[in-house]
Structure formats: structure tokens, C-alpha cells
Specification:
Layout lengths: L1 E3 L2 E3 L3 E10 L5 E9 L9 E5 L10 E7 L3 H6 L6 E3 L5 H10 L2
Antiparallel strand pairs: 1-2, 3-4, 4-5, 5-6, 6-7
Length: 102
């Protein structure tokens, strides 16, 4: 569900694939790629989710990437990491994660 201009949009997504990545820093990551089934929507048509964990584990935060161009364009976006945290974390918990996460 997306909220745009205070309007809730109920969007159906199709899972496209799972993409395993190796970054220039040699760190590895994974992104789950989804695309909207209906391409004529007011929300971004493509979204990617990443918790940067290759194997199942409890995630402290995640990253969401979204846009209209293509999944490939989103995969190339390595200079902006929109990060989302659980609402019950304190400010100091978030600072610690930002400074010391893998």
C-alpha cells in the first residue's frame, strides 16, 4: 500500500526475482524485486526490498528502492540508501546501527 497526497493506494505487486549482489566494497547483498501488476497507477511501478542479509535472520533495518524507470535502473542506484527502522527502536539504537552495522 502506498500513500500519495494523503490518498491510500491499494496496489497489487508481482514478485519478479531475487537478485544477489556483490558491491565494490566486496560486501554482499540481496534485493527482492517487485513490479506493479497494473502499470497505469499513481505510485511507482517498481519496488525493491533489501535487508542486506543473504540468509534468513532478524533484520534491524531494511532498504526500499522505488521508481518508474526499470528494475535495472534501481539496481544501479548505489549512492542513496533509504533506510527504514522498526518504530520501537530508540534514537540511540538507530545511531548505533548506522555507525556499526555490517
Amino acid at each position: 500500500m502506498f500513500v500519495i497526497k494523503m490518498k491510500f493506494l491499494n496496489i497489487k505487486w508481482k514478485k519478479r526475482k531475487i537478485k544477489f549482489l556483490t558491491y565494490d566494497s566486496s560486501k554482499k547483498g540481496v534485493r527482492y524485486l517487485f513490479s506493479a501488476i497494473d502499470e497505469n497507477i499513481a505510485a511507482p511501478r517498481h519496488i525493491q526490498f533489501s535487508d542486506r542479509n543473504i540468509k534468513p535472520t532478524k533484520a534491524e533495518h531494511c532498504h526500499l528502492y522505488f521508481g518508474d524507470e526499470s528494475q535495472e535502473t534501481l539496481l544501479k542506484g548505489l549512492d542513496n540508501w533509504p533506510t527504514y527502522y522498526k518504530s520501537d527502536l530508540s534514537g540511540s539504537d538507530i545511531v548505533h546501527d548506522v555507525l556499526y552495522h555490517h
